[in-house]
């Protein structure tokens, strides 16, 4: 019997990658508009390379971008980038299509709900609170707080302990076969791979750990209800067999 | 003859202090709303003390606030503070009453216009660009870029050199008697003290360096026009005396 459903955050509940791409493009566009003497394509390509090397949480993308482009440090250009980046992130932060509906239905059905995510805890909470997703969740688990990253067992085990459920009573939904699906399966959870965003066709070496693959979040409902119905029928049969 | 008018930025052109106060109050309010187990007054008072000690550009106000209140680190509360703080700063950033009008009039009259400000260059440019004040100014001078702070002569001398004017051809408008007025007078500029915000009655030891004191930015126009008229009349008299 499934009693708890866990969700990954980025690109599962929140449309992070699409938003980040839009924010970065708008940032470069605004820098060019304010005098950055480089064409959009060159600057955008350089920014993507930089993010690839330094990570997306690096705090100094725009001044490093100027260095890489052999340009002088210019706070006006940097400010133009920062403004457009933040404006985009604030204005266009959205939950993934169908996310609210599925959370609400699961809540009504009495399931425990949790988030299991990597990333900077403050930034993750910012997304959750800005979208008011906190209303739906009993618990939010952020791997950084435990000093690990998914697929490390520690975060999944903590989540199970907190809800006081057995692994087979929990379902994990996430977009990444490695961190979400392999991670959850390791501790014995049921797993739903959400084929969405840039990981929809990656990390396929870990495909065997996915019990289900879905293309829309709404399917989680059918899966959970289906699993619990099967379980119920099996239990009923056992009663009759007695 | 006045040919260039320089303006300080914070609390002269941009309503910085009022905004910061509003943003801090909203931050604490949102933290309390999301479960911070302390009353508003206690938390707000502690935040002000912290800012007093660590400065307003310290990047970790909210997690240090939790430490000072002997509370556990809680990214949800911090995120609640960060969100409300940023939302307020973005939504309520305003230029000081009358600023745009006076800049436009000076521009129409053919005066050179410059900003002379302290502070983090990117943050200062963010305010200028968000308010689209850059349209009015020929030059922006930020003391950090020269490794000094107002009233250091270096920043005022650079501004004069860049506009290629003599000190007596320049007027400095600012809210601080020490950094703006004493600073500008040191190098020989004419000075207008804008009695506004929290410095409206402070640093009075430097009052003697103010040629004029005003309570509304519009008065700058009358002052500049008056000074140039006097000058013209004096020049005319000299011609007649020849």
UniProtKB/TrEMBL annotation, chains A, B:
InterPro entries: HAD-like_hydrolase, HAD-like_sf, HAD-SF_hydro_IA, HAD-SF_hydro_IA_CTE7, HAD_sf. It holds the Pfam family Hydrolase. GO terms for biological process: small molecule metabolic process. GO terms for molecular function: metal ion binding; phosphatase activity. Keywords: Hydrolase, Magnesium, Metal-binding. Its cofactor is Mg(2+). Gene3D superfamilies: 1.10.150.520, HAD superfamily/HAD-like (3.40.50.1000). It comes from the Archaea. PANTHER family: GLYCERALDEHYDE 3-PHOSPHATE PHOSPHATASE, N-ACYLNEURAMINATE-9-PHOSPHATASE. Belongs to the HAD-like hydrolase superfamily. Catalyzes the dephosphorylation of D,L-glyceraldehyde 3-phosphate in vitro. This is Glyceraldehyde 3-phosphate phosphatase. It comes from Thermococcus onnurineus (strain NA1).
């Amino acid at each position: 019997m499934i009693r708890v459903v866990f969700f990954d955050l980025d690109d599962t509940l929140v449309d992070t990658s699409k938003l980040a791409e839009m924010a970065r493009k708008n940032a470069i566009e605004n820098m060019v508009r304010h005098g950055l003497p480089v064409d959009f394509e060159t600057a955008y390509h350089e920014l993507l390379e930089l993010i690839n090397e330094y990570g997306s949480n690096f705090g100094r993308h725009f001044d490093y971008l100027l260095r890489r482009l052999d340009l002088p440090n210019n706070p006006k250009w940097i400010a133009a980038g920062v403004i457009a980046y933040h404006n985009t992130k604030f204005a266009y932060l959205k939950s993934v299509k169908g996310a609210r509906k599925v959370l609400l239905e699961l809540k009504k059905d009495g399931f425990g709900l949790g988030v299991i995510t990597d990333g900077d805890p403050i930034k993750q909470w910012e997304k959750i609170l800005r979208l008011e997703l906190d209303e739906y969740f009993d618990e939010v688990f952020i791997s950084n707080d435990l000093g690990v990253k998914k697929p490390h067992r520690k975060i999944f085990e903590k989540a199970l302990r907190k809800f006081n459920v057995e692994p087979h009573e929990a379902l994990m939904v996430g977009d990444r076969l490695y961190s979400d699906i392999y991670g959850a399966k390791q501790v014995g959870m049921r797993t739903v791979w959400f084929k969405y965003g840039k990981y929809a066709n990656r990390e396929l070496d870990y495909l065997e750990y996915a019990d289900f693959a879905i293309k829309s979040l709404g399917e989680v409902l059918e899966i959970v209800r289906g699993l619990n119905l099967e379980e119920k029928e099996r239990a009923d049969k056992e009663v009759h067999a007695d």
